[in-house]
Amino acid sequence: MEKNIPRLMISGTNSGCGKTTIFCSILQALKNRGMNAAAFKCGPDYIDPMFHSSVIQAASSNLDPYFCGQWLPYVMAENAGEINLAEGAMGYYDGIGFTSDCSAFDVAKRLEIPSVLVVDARGSALSALAVMQGFLNFKENSGICGFILNRVTKKTYEGIRAAWKDPRAKLYGYFPPLPEKYILKSRHLGLVTAEEVCGLREMTQHLAEQAEETIDLNGLLALSSGAKPLIYEDLPVPKLEEIRIAVAKDEAFCFYYKENLDLLRKMGAQIDYFSPLRDACVPKTDCIYLGGGYPELYAEALSKNESMKASIREAAERGIPFFAECGGFMYLNRLLDGKEMAGVLGGVCENKGRLMRFGYVELEAKRDCLIAKKGDKLRVHEFHYYDCTQNGGDFTARRRESEYDCIFANERMAAGFPHIHFYGNLKAAEHFYRECLKRKSERI
């Protein structure tokens, strides 16, 4: 199929250059103009899409070639709005290892998205031109059509713009140095979540006003409208009997790929959200999905919610399937930083003070289980500072030169640190759904 989708990539020269702040400011400005703006994030990121959602009041989608592969155009087409902005991850060319595979550049190339790079030009003058020229020339077909300078004064910007002579890329404006209260803060897994930022709406409105003043929004809209029609194919999704999936969703458990939940709904699932922090028990369900997040920040509150922990254990005893990733896996264990958790699993989880696992991983199932058959291979991602005394051993994980065991898995359980994206594992998604149906029929 073919569809006209105005689209634009806002990426950057490196992490920390301010691209998320500028991205959100442009989104808010376009929304203020009454436009239906859709947001996308390159790579396996949960937190930036939460900011996008807070700004545009609609779920943001992930564009990840490692997971989505041939379905990357479908993800954009399925979630497209009047104007579609994709935010890059890390630096524009930074992909797997020291390659550009699965980078923002890779996404832009696959989807033929014109790209504008944010350049942190503080402390620079003519040297900013060398940075821009270097990015333009690094790849023969870079896809870079322009730049936005960050943390510069109007005078510096005007000087750089006057000196810039390369017709291949245009300067689309700048952002001045911002007061501390308008800078998005970070922690070990990236930015703090949108829910934790006081006055986020007021912040984004101020940023939108700045964008209207110093960024050429009309020029960016014109650039996006010049994108070629997007060619894509529909996702093959079976329609199955309905199951109810209870999804943990609150401040402690907030890391979910929108595409995963959308795919389960397409198959026939009813998604019911609940809060392990505040609710007394799990709703009536055919499966419990505990996503990642920051349970360590709310360990005391989670520990004190005795009725919820008892409800989780009772569900496990009744044979309700559990799908738990990273933070959800830690919650299922016995202790988290010395605080008692649900105790379905017997491990002890602690912060090791360093990044334990980071990056894309391929898993191979050692046995038939909730999400795979023996020998099946799954593409996943890991990013955690915590470790557990019992990480499971029902899958073999392989990443570059390393190999290790992980995940507790059987016909009613798949729990471990890795995060799975179903678009890269359609077979696993259908297997998971059908296993939940089997367990449902056994309880009837």
Short key terms for the protein model shown above:
seven-stranded parallel β-sheet, 444 residues, six-stranded mixed β-sheet, Rossmann fold, 32% helix, 26% strand
Blueprint of the fold:
Elements: E1 2-3, E2 7-12, H1 19-32, E3 37-42, H2 47-56, E4 61-63, H3 65-68, H4 72-79, E5 83-87, H5 104-111, E6 115-120, H6 127-138, E7 144-150, H7 154-163, E8 170-175, E9 186-187, E10 190-191, H8 200-214, H9 217-225, E11 230-231, E12 244-248, E13 253-255, H10 258-267, E14 270-274, E15 287-290, E16 292-293, H11 299-304, H12 306-317, E17 322-325, H13 327-332, E18 335-336, E19 339-340, E20 348-351, E21 357-365, E22 377-384, E23 386-388, E24 395-399, E25 402-406, E26 408-410, E27 413-416, E28 419-420, H14 426-443
Parallel strand pairs: 2-5, 2-6, 3-4, 3-5, 6-7, 7-8, 12-14, 12-15, 15-17, 17-27, 18-20
Antiparallel strand pairs: 1-11, 9-10, 13-16, 18-19, 20-23, 21-22, 21-24, 22-28, 24-25, 26-27
Q: How does the major sheet shape up? A: 7 strands, parallel
CATH topology of the largest domain: Rossmann fold
Q: Which stretches are poorly predicted, pLDDT < 50 over at least 5 residues?
A: 186-194
Radius of gyration: 23 Å
CATH architecture of the largest domain: 3-Layer(aba) Sandwich
Count of DSSP strands: 28
Major sheet strand order: 4-3-5-2-6-7-8
Helicity range: 25-40%
Could you name the CATH homologous superfamily of the largest domain? P-loop containing nucleotide triphosphate hydrolases
- Measure the end-to-end span: 42 Å
Indicate the structural class.
alpha/beta
Determine and state the CATH class of the largest domain.
Alpha Beta
Mean pLDDT: 92
Characterize the overall form: globular
Number of helices: 14
| Residue fraction in strands | 25-35%
What's the number of structural domains? Answer: 2
